[in-house]
């Protein structure tokens, strides 16, 4: 079967879709079962169909069917994401592994949407109104999304930094015998961890908090230095760049197609745009990145179509969470970071009041917390690098995606 | 060890065995070429043994007291600095080594006390607890000292000394294709760096004198299991230093959106800067950083490469993202050479990158470099195609005044004159662009073998570019109503083409055959011009009756007048035409002269009888001199301005 499909890919002219290599990648790398086979059969279906019925009567009906099938799959995927437990040791809502799944879903949707839009498509079709406006708008969103991917990659560096500090704290707290020295060591790491986390993303406030975290002002030589390196130059995408403004700009003109447009080409353009905006929004909410203040909690999701139900629920859930936490200034909604924050605070309290040798009961309670923190570190250790690579993959995909659209547009008329 | 402790009866014997073992361990520890792992084991063993000694001693009541005394001593040394505003390593080597000794001693005591698995002895527990507190204080202090040393002795280096800042101020190809109407500046500075620039120079990012200090701090922190703290401190300072250096180079973080919107001149200078910074950052800065990490953390397994990766990753990604943004931008022809610069830079840095990030954790960075290289290659090809398309589609509504060398021609020829410098890269990239050529390619490096150079992919593409250019020029020539001017235009332009090829390395790629053919071509246009302009003029001077000696006076008058009018007409139009090349202009005048002046002289000579008549408006000399005014590019009239 795959062999046949492969052949039918080769036959597809016009658009280069590295779908098969992708399908292999997916089946190899993805933890989720929903991607690999489903996708290749869906794409195969479109491809075969397009080859058979191209320029024939009934083409439009076939397209509508394709679109419906696509929306059904979307709906399933987001439902699965929505069903993740709120608090679980693994695969929790907004956990690293959940975010990885989300990005996987994004990559799949992106490929499929592009297939629907471009495969075997006459270039003239996508360069006439309203697509001559919608596609360039989509491509602008794509460019903004690339920058967001880079901002998030920087943010993941901060998360990794937190992980390292937490690991120090864990190793100090696990020491046997445990004494005040180890308590102080743990506290030092935890205080650094908290201040690394508790920066709001504004450039101005960066230095103050960061300085506190290293607090080396005591000796003259270090007074003017702050070691907020995870908040320094490389943290920035660019001067004055703002993640929340990017999201805001991406939602401009993002409106669900109405009437007859809802069942033809504007529909997949809208779907792809919405998913890009949505996924980027979630990434920004979850992972610290440059200037998130004022992040909107409202995305223009059309709730009157079936496939958006789960997506809208995820959106509402995260939006609520964001509103609750935003004021406090925090590291993001990432499950592991939240967990780390809570455990960190509690452990700081413990180290603050600790006196050798400590009460047995308290020590047992702390041991449990330490074990939990160690588990969070372990999950970060496992998940962060792959997530970072996946985000980079998404970045590259957006780059390719844009090129393909531009190529097709170039064939079909005035270049954007 | 438990055996030792329980063996009370042989107290004396134990003491001897332990003492002997201790002695051996100490002797072994003094051996030089030990691996760090082994050394650590010996040190541990050493402290265990000294503990045992004191423990055995304690049976005699003295042991713990001894340990406590040692700890007191170390504590005094360590605590004294807690209130001192000075940094230890600033205070002198003696202070530093005393401090390290005290820390080392404390560490040994902690290890020893721990190794003894003391269940019951409360006193021992207390001492251990105290020792660990002191150790924590010292470690915290060492971390501070480390940061202080790194910051204080961190060294900036001037990029100038490393690489000549070889930005090629080459206005010709910096110009955007659209502004092709402007006169390009002819002098182009050539590239003053080449790719085999192997001048890998490593500098001391931190003063060499303090490296042993840092190493000794690393050693004691790692021995006491404070390695992660050491790494975080090192990473934080060095990462920030790299970022500062990055902005010192004048490179700033730009979003992809910014890059895509950037104007060409600005983008061009940023691309230049990128090429330059990339080299310095990778070849000098990162190579030096790697050395620093290895010097300080060598022998600690993957710690060194972990720190190096953490320090450099963010900056590298930042540089790569700019490259990505450039590669995805619109493929404009003027971008080609800059893209090739970037491509070549990356290509020649790949080996460095693969070495710097050889560990598994760094493979991510390696991969990103390879991907970007590929992308830049694709982008360069696309820009190359865009260049070709731009040449073909460069349209004009009006004929180019004077028939001189068209700006498009100048732009294109000055631009492609730079190509031979990128020969190997272009061959590599263009190899697959034309199936017919790819087959011929066997040798990737075409060297200077002339016969091979003309058949390399680049040569093929160069010729295809000039043929695009030629056909566009033909199209442009059709805009002239005057056939003679069409020929002047083509003659000028093809002559220019040939001159540019002959006068540069391009000739090696175009080959003699091409040059011969094109020489013939412009000469043909010169002849066609003469025919188109002068045949009708000279026809007045033709002898209709070669047999008879002279013509009738009225015929002569008529012919004379006809000639004058026609000549004046030609003079008036063709003084405004232009042949920019002086030699070519001279050649054409001579050959015109030969034809026209000779015919006129013959004509007048044959009709000497009538030459006094007023009807002979121009003397032979007048005609000859007037011909010198042609093609100077400023219109004149013989009727209004009688110079003679």
Automatic annotation (TrEMBL), chain A:
Stretches the record annotates as Disordered: 202-227
Keyword annotations: Membrane, Signal, Transmembrane, Transmembrane helix
UniProt keyword ATP-binding present: no
Pfam family, one: ROH1-like
Cellular localisation: Membrane
Biased composition (Basic and acidic residues): 202-211
Transmembrane feature ranges: 267-287
Domain of life: Eukaryota
Main location: membrane
PANTHER family (alphabetical): BPS1-LIKE PROTEIN (PTHR31509)
Family in the record: Belongs to the ROH1 family.
Name of the protein: Protein ROH1
Taxonomic source organism: Gossypium hirsutum
Taxonomic lineage from the root: Eukaryota, Viridiplantae, Streptophyta, Embryophyta, Tracheophyta
Gene: LOC107949021
TrEMBL record, chain B:
GO molecular function: phosphatidylinositol-4,5-bisphosphate binding
Name of the featured protein: Exocyst subunit Exo70 family protein
Example GO biological process: protein transport
GO CC field: exocyst
Stated role: Component of the exocyst complex.
Keywords in alphabetical order: Exocytosis, Protein transport, Transport
InterPro entries xrefs: Cullin_repeat-like_dom_sf, Exo70, Exo70_C
Gene3D superfamilies for this protein: Exocyst complex component Exo70
Taxonomy, superkingdom: Eukaryota
Domain Exocyst complex subunit Exo70 C-terminal stretches: 273-629
Family to which the UniProt record says this protein belongs: Belongs to the EXO70 family.
């Amino acid at each position: 079967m795959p062999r046949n499909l492969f052949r039918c890919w080769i036959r597809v002219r016009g658009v280069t879709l590295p779908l098969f290599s992708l399908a292999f990648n997916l089946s190899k790398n993805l933890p989720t079962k929903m991607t690999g086979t489903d996708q290749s059969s869906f794409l195969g279906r479109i491809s075969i169909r397009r080859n058979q019925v191209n320029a024939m009567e009934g083409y439009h009906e076939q397209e509508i069917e394709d679109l419906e099938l696509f929306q059904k799959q979307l709906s399933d995927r987001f439902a699965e994401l929505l069903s993740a437990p709120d608090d679980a040791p693994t695969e929790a809502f907004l956990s690293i592994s959940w975010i990885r799944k989300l990005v996987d879903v994004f990559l799949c949707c992106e490929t499929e949407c592009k297939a629907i839009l471009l495969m075997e498509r006459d270039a003239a079709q996508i360069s006439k109104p309203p697509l001559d406006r919608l596609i360039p708008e989509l491509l602008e969103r794509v460019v903004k999304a690339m920058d967001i991917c880079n901002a998030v990659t920087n943010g993941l560096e901060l998360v990794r930094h937190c992980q390292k500090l937490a690991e120090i704290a864990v190793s100090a707290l696990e020491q046997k015998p445990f004494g005040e020295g180890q308590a102080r060591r743990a506290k030092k790491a935890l205080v650094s961890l908290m201040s690394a986390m508790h920066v709001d993303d504004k450039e101005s406030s960066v230095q103050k908090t960061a300085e506190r975290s290293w607090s080396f002002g005591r000796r003259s030589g270090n007074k003017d230095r702050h070691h907020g390196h995870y908040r320094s130059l490389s943290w920035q995408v660019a001067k004055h760049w703002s993640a929340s403004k990017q999201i805001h700009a991406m939602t401009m003109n993002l409106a669900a197609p109405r009437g007859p447009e809802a069942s033809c080409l504007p529909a997949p353009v809208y779907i792809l745009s919405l998913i890009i905006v949505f996924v980027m929004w979630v990434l920004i909410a979850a992972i610290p990145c440059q200037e998130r203040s004022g992040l909107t909690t409202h995305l223009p999701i059309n709730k009157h179509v079936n496939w958006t139900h789960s997506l809208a629920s995820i959106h509402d859930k995260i939006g609520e969470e964001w509103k609750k936490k935003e004021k406090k200034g925090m590291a993001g909604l990432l499950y592991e970071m939240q967990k780390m924050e809570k455990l960190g605070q509690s452990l700081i309290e413990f180290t603050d009041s600790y006196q050798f040798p400590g009460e047995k009961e308290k020590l047992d309670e702390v041991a449990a917390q330490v074990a939990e923190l160690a588990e969070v570190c372990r999950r970060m250790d496992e998940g962060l690098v792959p997530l970072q690579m996946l985000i980079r993959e998404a970045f590259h995909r957006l780059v390719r995606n844009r090129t393909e659209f531009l190529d097709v547009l170039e064939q079909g008329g005035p270049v954007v | 060890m438990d055996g030792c402790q329980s063996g009370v009866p042989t107290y004396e014997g134990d003491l001897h065995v332990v003492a002997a073992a201790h002695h051996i361990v100490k002797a072994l520890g003094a051996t030089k070429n030990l691996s760090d792992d082994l050394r650590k084991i010996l040190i541990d063993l050493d402290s265990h043994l000294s503990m045992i000694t004191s423990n055995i001693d304690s049976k005699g009541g003295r042991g713990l007291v001894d340990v406590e005394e040692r700890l007191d001593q170390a504590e005094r040394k360590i605590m004294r600095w807690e209130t001192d505003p000075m940094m230890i390593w600033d205070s002198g080597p003696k202070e530093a080594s005393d401090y390290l000794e005290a820390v080392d001693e404390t560490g040994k005591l902690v290890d020893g006390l721990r190794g003894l698995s003391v269940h019951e002895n409360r006193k021992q527990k207390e001492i251990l607890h105290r020792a660990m507190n002191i150790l924590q204080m010292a470690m915290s202090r060492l971390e501070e000292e480390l940061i202080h040393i790194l910051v204080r002795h961190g060294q900036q280096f001037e990029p100038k000394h490393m690489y000549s800042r070889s930005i090629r101020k080459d206005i010709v190809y910096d110009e955007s294709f659209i502004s092709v109407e402007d006169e390009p500046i002819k002098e182009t500075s050539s590239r003053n760096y080449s790719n085999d620039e192997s001048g890998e120079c490593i500098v001391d990012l931190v003063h060499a004198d303090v490296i042993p200090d840092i190493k000794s701090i690393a050693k004691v922190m790692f021995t006491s299991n404070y390695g992660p703290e050491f790494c975080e401190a090192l990473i934080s300072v060095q990462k920030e230093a790299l970022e500062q250096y990055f902005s010192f180079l004048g490179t700033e973080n730009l979003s992809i959106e910014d890059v895509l919107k950037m104007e060409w001149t600005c983008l061009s200078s940023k691309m230049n800067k990128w090429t330059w910074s990339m080299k310095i950052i990778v070849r000098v800065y990162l190579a030096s950083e790697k050395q620093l990490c290895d010097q300080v953390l060598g022998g600690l397994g993957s710690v060194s490469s972990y720190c190096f990766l953490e320090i450099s990753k963010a900056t590298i990604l930042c540089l790569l993202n700019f490259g990505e943004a450039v590669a995805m931008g619109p493929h404009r022809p003027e971008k080609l050479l800059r893209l090739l610069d970037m491509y070549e830079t990356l290509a020649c840095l790949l080996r460095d990158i693969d070495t710097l990030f050889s560990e598994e954790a760094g493979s991510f960075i390696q991969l990103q470099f390879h991907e970007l290289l590929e992308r830049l290659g694709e982008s360069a090809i696309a820009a190359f195609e865009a260049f070709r398309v731009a040449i073909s589609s460069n349209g004009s509504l009006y004929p180019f005044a004077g028939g001189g060398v068209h700006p498009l021609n100048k732009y294109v020829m000055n631009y492609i004159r730079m190509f031979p410098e990128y020969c190997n890269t272009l061959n590599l990239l263009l190899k697959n662009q034309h199936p017919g050529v790819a087959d011929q390619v066997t040798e990737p490096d075409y060297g200077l073998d002339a016969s091979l150079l003309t058949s390399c992919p680049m040569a093929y593409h160069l010729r295809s570019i000039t043929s695009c250019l030629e056909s566009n020029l033909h199209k442009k020539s059709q805009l002239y109503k005057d056939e003679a001017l069409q020929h002047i235009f083509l003659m000028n332009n093809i002559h220019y083409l040939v001159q540019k090829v002959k006068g540069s390395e391009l000739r090696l790629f175009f080959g003699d055959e091409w040059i011969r053919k094109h020489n013939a071509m412009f000469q043909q246009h010169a002849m066609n011009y003469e025919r188109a302009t002068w045949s009708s003029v000279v026809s007045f001077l033709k002898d209709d009756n070669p047999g008879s000696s002279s013509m009738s006076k009225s015929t002569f008058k008529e012919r004379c007048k006809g000639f004058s009018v026609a000549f004046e007409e030609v003079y008036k139009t063709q003084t405004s035409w232009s042949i920019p090349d002086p030699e070519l202009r001279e050649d054409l005048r001579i050959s015109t002269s030969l034809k026209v002046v000779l015919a006129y002289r013959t004509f007048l000579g044959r009709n000497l009888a009538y030459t006094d008549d007023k009807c002979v408006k121009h003397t032979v000399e007048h005609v000859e001199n007037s011909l010198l005014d042609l093609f100077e590019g400023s219109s004149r009239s013989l009727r209004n301005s009688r110079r003679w």
